[in-house]
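ESCALATION

Customer reports they have been waiting on this structure for their group meeting. Please prioritize. Original submission:
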Amino acid sequence: MDTIGSVNLTGRLATLACGVDWPSAPEDVKTRLLMAVRDSIACGIAGSVTSLARIHRSANDIRGEGECTIIGTGQKAGVAAAAFHNATAINALDFDDTASVSGHPGAPVFAAAYAVAERERSSGRELLSAILTGYEVAARVAVSCRPSPEQYAMVHGSQCFLGFGTVAAAGRLLKLDERQMARAFGIVAAITPIPVASKFGWDEGQLSWIKDNVNWPAEAGVRAAYLAANDFPASETIFDGERGFWRMIASDRFDGDALVDAETFYIRSLAFKPYPCCRWLHAAAEAFDLCLEQAGQPMATEVERIKIETTKGVASTFGAKRPKTMIDAQFSAPFTVGALANRIAKTDWWREETIRSQAIQNVMDAVDLVEDPAMTTSYFGSGRNVNRIPARVTMRLSDGREFAATCLVPSGTAGRSATSADDDDKMLSTKHRLLYDPYLSSQQTDRLMHALASLPVSQTLERLSAAIGGAVAKINEDIPVESRRG
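Update from on-call: job pushed to the front of the queue and completed.
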């Protein structure tokens, strides 16, 4: 067993990273990865029009200089800037994939890999190998460095793991050798974000727009990989010994075996979202949807009371009834059920007019969010898997009828049932049509679908870049400058 004091863990992770290969991966792994790529692109196109994505582009003064695609804008940028802005757009709606312990890996890993692949003129197969590497490395760092529940309550943040995934993905495309990859890990450890989730703004009346912090790890990974490719001197032992990376991020434990596990494909457990809100709320959303279905889809005005029973972490944190911004709304259980009750298109949940809607506020006022201790116990029994946070919803209508539903494992969770892979594929097809329809013509969608289908055998990314680059450029151009600044 590898203990905290074991040596060469960094080198062994570098060896593993350099050996991940798309063509030789199991078929179910390939399928999950292609689903993840499709999902990142769809989320990025729809997310590019949000105020969160626009304010980043405005503040960073993107003027079309560079060779890498900025999704949905018709603009180009340098490789690091493209990684940053595309990660922002993919995560903006909070509709992107979720790993059980490492946050939102798809946004930064895809964004970093795609930017470097464009610059280096990589093939589709090389891109897919790089993205798979990024998912696997990020997951291993997250699992190995995960703090105890007690320490997690004090300090945590998935953003500090994601940079290792992005640098591994970028490093594969730059063809780093094992020593360079180990150095790349040392570089990214020094510039990756610190764990700041406990200061997300939970007790300040408004959540931070830093949000899941996927963009800085995307940029950090790209920069670190190019430095390593130029033989930039750096630590080659960042995970080794008593002073390894886990200490730097204030974790209280480390599992070296998990870091260098060469058997597991963590992407098999990747979850996809059917709702544009924090994954912690998906069981509650799905249970409420089931209540609406049982009741014959009543009008929102008929809903008199909604009781949501769930884990202590959700009940104590996600209860905001007057979200001020799109980010606040993504982490509000009352807003989520309010949007569902009013049948708001999921592509419009982020809009200010939705958040300010009196009809949604009326539903929010009807929500009681409480802990079910058994559900808290169940969550901890799952190994604190954020894709297995249960909820039970009871809905009472104005005519006195009550409807109840429980969701233990929300849709999009890998292994939810014997047919979950097919269910997830169908769910994503519906979701992606929803994300594309407001912005893309049928001809644009067809071109994009064809480019994605041919990605594994494509020698270049030119067709895919053309399809995703200018997809909603006109919409983004038409947004007033004042909106971009606020």
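Sent to customer with the following note: The longest strand covers residues 303-310.
Escalation resolved.
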